Amino acid sequence: MSNPAPDDKSPYHHGDLRQALMAAAEAELGERGIEAFSLRSVAKRAGVSHAAPAHHFGDVNRLLTALATEGFRQFLAAQSAREAAAAPDAASQMVAAGLGYIDFAMQRPALFRLLWGSRRPDFTDADLAEASRASYQHLVDQIGAAGGRTIADETAVWAIAHGLADLLCAGRMSGIGSLAPPERDRVLADILRRALPR
Amino acid sequence: MSNPAPDDKSPYHHGDLRQALMAAAEAELGERGIEAFSLRSVAKRAGVSHAAPAHHFGDVNRLLTALATEGFRQFLAAQSAREAAAAPDAASQMVAAGLGYIDFAMQRPALFRLLWGSRRPDFTDADLAEASRASYQHLVDQIGAAGGRTIADETAVWAIAHGLADLLCAGRMSGIGSLAPPERDRVLADILRRALPR
DNA sequence: GCGCTATCTTGTCGCTGTCAAGATTGTATT
DNA sequence: AATACAATCTTGACAGCGACAAGATAGCGC
């Protein structure tokens, strides 16, 4: 096991460049956005040459694919975090999952936009497809437990959570976006509950 | 008035290059998507040199800003078209506006993504900001006429329409997206009506 | 010690957006 | 009608980009 000293300035072999590139890529995504995302800038941030990422990811889209796959898992984790703090009844769990969906969008907007608003990740990639499916299927499943029976019910809860998340993430909902978090959560929960059939 | 012959092959002065560039830009957007959008490719399609667009739009983002402004107006027109064909009661008009919102997203996905999923247009531009505001304010106003009173009501109808539109536009809602249009409209209308307070 | 392979660097290519300078055309003025 | 001026478009250049090829370096099994 090599284990180079942390202060080792610039060893020819990085050690865990793949992970470092992923972290640098997310930081770049947060600072410059997906539009100005640059593979060379990621490499520079990680302290390696401009061609180093190619060996680990092939091309820039595959780096973004890996980033999106990891992003979807954290996205699902954000929903689980809300559920853990919510009442155990099915309707509350459904609302909590929706609030987690929105939490992620507001807290990590650049990553959310990579997941839902970009075509650069390769969504035919098996890992990404599965991580993506699992992330919204979890939410959709909740409404079944809460009394939803039709495809309209399933679609409704997903569309409501996604619409709120996307518009808040983009900063276009000044009305709700400027509310204090507790009050905002109450309004969002009110809206999410409308997905349930009457 | 100049009025050059239509078959005039390549006059030094185009005549209405600004409009031609807008059309070429939308065509490029539809064929290659926002990620691969290229100013030089737009110029080539319009039959002019690579630097010609700069004189009319300054830079590429201002071309996209102009395109988005026009896009928002057509987006609003898609809602009006549905309303004109719907029953005159307030709830039906609200649903119709939502269906028009979704129509536009499914029929012109590249443009919809420019309007709602890109940061390249300059949304501080006065014309664009006004066109954008008008496009969703119209939908939000409908729920007031249909009995909505709270900020939750207004937010709900917008979020539902937008969530459905965004996910259908991205091709991620295979369940509803694969239905035949009449059946699909029925399900979408069912969901849109859930925005109304009970 | 030796060879093999993975890892990383350097250099190059075509493409991109933007800027500067020059060519062409339309229009107003005299 | 001739001239000056402004608008329009082209050509050429530059740096930054993603991708590829070739070479340098390092770890690892033998």
Primary descriptors:
homodimer, 198 residues, mainly alpha, 0% strand, elongated, DNA-binding
Task: Please provide a brief summary of the model.
Chain A is mainly α and 198 residues long.
Radius of gyration of chain A: 19 Å
Report the oligomer: homodimer
User: First CA to last CA of chain A: what distance?
Assistant: 62 Å
| pLDDT averaged over residues of chain A | 93
Q: Note the beta-strand portion of chain A.
A: under 5%
What would you call the shape of chain A?
elongated
Largest sheet of chain A: none
The biggest chain-chain interface is:
A-B, 34 and 34 residues
Helix and strand element order of chain A:
HHHHHHHHHH
Number of alpha- plus pi-helical segments of chain A: 10
Percent of residues in helices of chain A comes to: 55-70%
**Which residues of chain A sit in consecutive blocks of at least 5 with pLDDT less than 50?**
1-9
**What structural class do helix, strand and pairing data of chain A support?**
mainly alpha
Please count the beta strands of chain A (DSSP E, at least 2 residues each).
Answer: 0
